[in-house]
Amino acid sequence: MLYVVSTPIGNIEDISLRALKVLKEADLILAEDTRRTGVLLNKYKIKNKMISFNDYNKERRVKEIIDDVNDKKVAIVSDCGTPGISDPGFYLVRECVKRDIEVSGIPGANAMVNALVCSGLPTDKFCFLGFLSKKEKQKRELFENVKMTTVVYESPHRLIKTLKLMDEVIPSFDVVVCREMTKKFEEFIRGSASEVYSKLKDKKIKGEIVLVLNPKKD
Questions:
Q1: Is CATH 3.30.950.10 the right assignment for the domain spanning 111-214?
Q2: Which CATH class is domain 2-106?
Q3: pLDDT for residue 44
Q4: Residues contacting residue 173 through CB under 8 Å, at least 6 positions apart
């Protein structure tokens, strides 16, 4: 069986008892970044076998581990949050489903959901689009077509450029920049696209970023 195990998005204590139980019992743990996951496992004294599973080796790894999934307990974790959400875990889950291998999810933290519920923007219906394109044309087209609350991931290195584009294309939209959620320097910067850009344009932004935007004020 493959267990899809959610891990903390920041605060290392945000992990469920069931997730810890599964990781302790797993014959093999697949981690996007073994160093990062190693910190979590060391915290909870879990010393099970762990190997990397990421965008660079996923095709090779699937061939190596697919037989193990048939007769062992294999757990896959992301760098943070829920595997498979803008994450290479999707690839392994799909291959297991194709082969009728049982998949079980261990729910928990997710950056997209946490940003949405803390944003203060309408949550009755929303759209999640993963990581924004690096290309301005594609981002512009996306912003021009937003019809409801929309959640996206963005690199801190591109955030100011993206906010500037929002200021040009959707200046009146409500925007929330969610930064370093659940960590010591957690921050939510709210306002219109123009206001948020004005607040941040001269700052150097660090940390994990989630953007939430909505085309009207409620």
A1: yes
A2: alpha beta
A3: 97
A4: 143, 146, 166, 192, 193, 213, 214, 215
